[in-house]
Amino acid sequence: MDNDDIEQQEPFPVDRDGRQYQVQVDQVQVDGNRKPGCCERFQQSVSRWMLPEELRSKYLERANCCPPPIFIILISIAELAVFIYYAVWKPQKQWVTLDDGIWNSPLTYKPECRQEAWRFISYMFVHAGVQHILGNLLMQLLLGIPLELVHKGFEVGMVYLAGVLAGSLASSIFDPLSALVGASGGVYALMGGYLMNAVVNFREMIPLLGVFRILVIVLFVGIDFGFAFYRRFVSDEAGMKVSFVAHFGGILAGMTIGYVFFSDYNKKLLKDPRFWLCIVGFVVCVLFAVLFNIFLSPAP
After folding, report:
1. What does this protein do, in the record's words (predicted)?
2. CATH fold of 67-296, please?
């Protein structure tokens, strides 16, 4: 093959930042008899699940398991490890209820300790019980792994942590006397971004699959909100009341920031005006929440 032929070939695909992806030799060779491997079949399923039809071929050209979906796996392991620590080494009366071990944790968000700024993020590692942590882990793995294969760990991590922070700040404003535990803010951020992606690209998806995706999210949100309202307003369990407002903050963060990150993976974010609009809006909301907690909060 001469140099002219090489120059006429289509260039290797690049990511949002212009970096070339590493493409394996067997991916650029024409081999009609080669059957796709397990990883390739999984990536094809992910592309049908996550992307509109016109973007699937581009995704499959760039898709690989390097790096693997490491963020969502590591954060899930960390949350599970903290739960096991408080359930086994600091035993509770029951695994499904809160007790002193959790309330005394330096990770839990408590309104009287809000000057300890790390609690606005670290509360995501502490969970109220088995149902609480299993629900969060199940949803964030089911959503986070496919999202991270498409969008990689940095983007998924930023959306997840934005939901966690938005959840605690929203709770500190709208439910300022309640404590906060659990990763629901981050989970709801993933769901919010995923839901917006499913709604906006519904016509490009397989109709039955699109309906199924939306119904699953709506069903989970309804059930989880039901448990949250019950724990907050109905349950007679002793101890501090747990806020549910983080769910609202997380899903709003996901439907804005998450939608921008997840709607068009092949576009440079820094050149997308929606990205800057969401970033500016998020920063303004954070500054307002910080000033509210310093000067206006009724919490002690």
Report:
1. Involved in regulated intramembrane proteolysis and the subsequent release of functional polypeptides from their membrane anchors. Known substrate: EFNB3.
2. Rhomboid-like fold (1.20.1540)
